[in-house]
Amino acid sequence: MPEDQVGKLEATENTISAMAAAAAEQQQFYLLLGNLLSPDNVVRKQAEETYENIPGQSKITFLLQAIRNTTAAEEARQMAAVLLRRLLSSAFDEVYPALPSDVQTAIKSELLMIIQMET
Fold first, then answer.
1. What is the pTM of this model?
2. Domain Importin N-terminal: where (predicted)?
3. pLDDT for 63-108, tens place per residue?
4. pLDDT tier for residue 2 given thresholds of 50, 70 and 90
């Protein structure tokens, strides 16, 4: 196989691996959202600690994806919306200005799109 084709194949494999990893992380985040709603104090406390250790930009990404996913459980989507509101209102000055301008624009666009989907 020619070298350029091998390089393209490796790049494709890396992309697929990255997409699979992102999907797995999002699934773990859905489980975390469910655990945040758990009536079991131990489970909920552990989920809260895990959530607090997620970096701000990653939280925003996961929360927006959860809100946008209409196939996700309604409770998980609602929890994601509440957590995003809390994050943007309580830690706005820490999180938002540190984001690249293209990410800030994407967040605004995503929020507007989500609002339009719900109305």
1. 0.74
2. 63-117
3. 999 998 889 889 999 999 999 999 888 878 888 888 888 888 988 8
4. low
Domains contained in the chain, number: 1
Joined together, the tokens standing for residue 45 give 């406390």
Buried b (16+ CB within 10 A) or exposed e, 57-88: eebbbbbbbbbeeeebeeebbebbbebbeebb
Quick one: tokens of 69?
Answer: 């996913």
- Confirm if 96 and 104 have CB atoms less than 8 A apart: yes
* CB-count exposure of residue 43 (10 Å: 0-12, 13-18, 19+): middle
Number of neighbouring beta carbons within 10 Å of residue 107: 19
**How many Å separate Cα 24 from the centre of its chain?**
11
